[in-house]
Specification:
By secondary structure, the protein is α/β, with parallel strands linked by helices. The chain is 47% helix and 17% strand. Helix 2 links the parallel strand 1 and strand 2. InterPro entries: Bact_solute-bd_prot1, SBP.
Length: 419
């Protein structure tokens, strides 16, 4: 009898003291993954009743495939990283948990002021209508990298407008051996949809826009699209810009190109490629018609398939991730942006900003940051625009044909979205 009671007591003790487990799928590898593991470890040590298990799935593509397969098989984690278009697709299956009730919970919620302290662009990206389905996580903005040593030697100021960018690109491009091909290019760009979208936003255009009925419609067939395509074609025709599909940090480090635009997440690679060679810096992207600039990165979503106690535990961790100190720690140690203004007042951020004058420059653009459309077919639409951009840039098709084809394809995907 004593042995039986002891066994029962042990079973009850294990049951009573068992921690609520939160499974977190993510795509943060390398140094970013190490920082995330440190945050998870600190959270777990602060929680007597919750344990977060961070599971690295692989790159973003692997994570997306895993989520889609998990949704079909009914095998999802408690929470996961997700781009907003992934969330839009998963929302169609009704498996993404609305967060409003946790945010408004009198015991574990956050105040209206705390939520509004999150940068507006990031809040909007997590919200569908009046329902919040995510919290922002690893966010970055596009910025202009430049060879400060070369610009200073040439007496060129950092371009602040599109016309200044074009002028600087011409002045800085050099054909040293006079073979008709530049040895140094003043500017470089990637032949990607991201590049096209950056400049389209700067010009005041959109790939799609919201109609009066609240549904997105194609906006690619526009004067702004034509001006952007003509701008890139002129750069190449005048031989003042270098273009390639891959990342530009290596040829930047070699001194082959002197200016280019990419996300702040590329900073570690720039530092590595330029080390001991020259001084580099970055500045806000040049103004065209607007100061608009897209941002990149994922959010954290919760799945409705989890048990209620797991959801409440997951919310505690999500709330922890966007706390001022934690998002500041994440930003300082990874190069991503903090997601809240209050993070800029934390000791860790102030100390880092004091020793690193480049740290706060991207935040000059934060109020002009624009989110991608919250469409489940956004990936497909991006592919259409990528084809349009590349086919025109590479001379495979004339401008009007490229635009008309893209417009028709985008309309087809939007019809699928709203059928």
């Amino acid at each position: 009898m004593k042995r039986f009671l002891l066994v029962v007591f042990l079973i009850l003790s294990v049951t009573f003291f068992a921690k609520t487990k939160v499974v977190f799928w993510h795509a943060m590898g390398g140094g970013h993954g190490e920082v995330l593991n440190q945050i998870v470890k600190a959270f777990n040590e602060s929680q007597p009743n919750i344990v977060v298990e961070a599971v690295y799935i692989g790159n973003y593509s692997a994570l997306q495939q895993k989520l889609l397969a998990g949704a079909q098989a009914g095998q999802l984690p408690t929470i996961s990283q997700a781009y907003s278009n992934w969330t839009a697709k998963l929302l169609q299956s009704g498996i993404v948990e609305p967060l409003n009730k946790y945010m408004n919970d009198p015991k574990i919620g956050i105040t209206k002021q705390e939520w509004e302290d999150v940068f507006k662009a990031f809040r909007d990206n997590c919200t569908w209508g009046n329902t919040v389905y995510a919290v922002p996580f690893n966010k970055s903005l596009y910025i202009m990298y430049y060879n400060a040593t070369a610009l200073s030697a040439a007496g060129i100021s950092v371009p602040k407008s599109i016309n200044e960018l074009l002028y600087s690109a011409k002045v800085l491009t050099k054909d040293k051996n006079k073979d008709g091909k530049p040895d140094v290019y003043g500017f470089a760009f990637r032949t990607t949809v991201d590049t096209f979208q950056i400049f389209l936003m700067m010009r005041g255009g959109e790939i799609v826009k919201l109609g009066k009925d609240g549904k997105y419609v194609s906006a690619i067939d526009s004067p702004e699209t034509r001006e952007v395509l003509q701008f890139f074609k002129k750069l190449l025709d005048d031989k003042v810009a270098f273009a390639q599909g891959g990342y530009l940090n290596d040829i930047f480090g070699q001194g082959t190109v002197l200016m280019y635009i990419d996300t702040i997440a590329g900073r570690p690679y720039v530092e590595q490629s330029t080390k001991g060679k020259f001084q580099w810096a970055w500045a806000p992207v040049p103004v065209w018609k607007t100061r608009n600039v897209p941002f990149a990165g994922t959010d954290i979503i919760m799945f409705s398939t989890a048990k209620e106690e797991e959801k409440r535990a997951a919310w505690e961790f999500m709330k922890y991730l966007i706390s001022p100190e934690v998002t500041a720690y994440w930003a300082v140690n990874t190069g991503y942006l903090p997601v809240r203004r209050a993070a800029l007042q934390t000791t860790i951020w102030k100390q880092a900003a004091k020793s690193d004058p480049l740290l706060e420059i991207p935040l000059q653009q934060i109020d002009n940051a624009k989110m991608d459309p919250q469409l489940s077919v956004w990936t497909e639409i991006r592919n259409v625009v990528s084809t349009m951009f590349n086919d025109f840039i590479n001379g495979k098709v004339d401008m009007e044909t490229a635009i008309k084809r893209a417009d028709a394809e985008i309309k087809k995907y939007l019809a699928e979205e709203y059928k």
